[in-house]
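Supplementary Text 2. Reproducibility record for the structural model of the 319-residue chain.

All settings were left at their defaults, and a single model was retained for analysis rather than an ensemble. We include the record here because the model underlies the residue-level annotations in Supplementary Table 4.
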Amino acid sequence: MSNDGDDGKDLQAIAGNAISEVMKYYVGNDEVLKKILASILASGHVLLQDFPGTGKTFLAKLLSSILGLSYRRIQFTPDLLPSDIIGTKVWQPLKGEFSVVKGPIFANLILADEINRAPPKTQAALLEAMEERQVTIEGETMPLQLPFIVIATQNPIEFEGTYPLPEAQLDRFMIRTSLGYPANELDVLRRRISWKKEDPSGEAQKIMDGDMLLRLRDFIESNITVSDEVLNYIASFSGCRADSRVLAGPSPRGVISLLRISRAYAFVSGRNYVTPDDVKTVSTEVLSHRIALKAEYMLEEVTPEAVLREYVTKIKVPK
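Retained model, structure tokens:
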């Protein structure tokens, strides 16, 4: 690494310790956890699309404790207003002026629970915050505290009373992934008995804090190298825009996101360079929700994931 190699190994060890600490409490796929942590290290937001009861909220709380981040949960409902998220200005009669009352978005890690239950106007309150790390309250722009991460959840099987996320909102999420059901249900039950409580996230060891997380991000930007061959490989994924089945392909932001998370994934994997396998491993989670198919192919049950998998197999992999 361009900086001291021992320092890089120490920082990678911290990231590895964070994953290990999560796995002490969360029974799930450690590969998915690596991708979620890589997204956080790449300054990306995470959309968890999964069935109820799979531990999405618990995982968000657990990550906030282990990463040492301030945490706020926002329950999205049909009557939620944008001001309920970002805040508003309130008249103070004694002072004779308006003062800002900050909303729950002023935290390091935001859990946007069931984000698709709020109408588009309320969903749009997150757009500026997720992209520019700032909010505007009645004309006054205020920066958000860094690091700022949104972990949103939605139920993929329940559509009544929901509002599909618009493309602009989906494009703000670096990855869309699923936790899935645990492979070992017995382990879940045994851990529940040992916890003696429903939510042990407060007992998890704090591995880092916000400043350390920002340091890890800076290290990745400065030290994880990407060869020209791998850069060309990443850029090749934009070719699916020309597919006859695709109405809109990955945006330039999506391709840049693929680069950023590939570097972070290489870092948490203990390397200082990106391999084509790093790119392939995260490509579906990064790009599938950025592909919109033409209606006739959706009716034929063609999925963006299937289209993307085709491109993964046919794009020439650099040696």
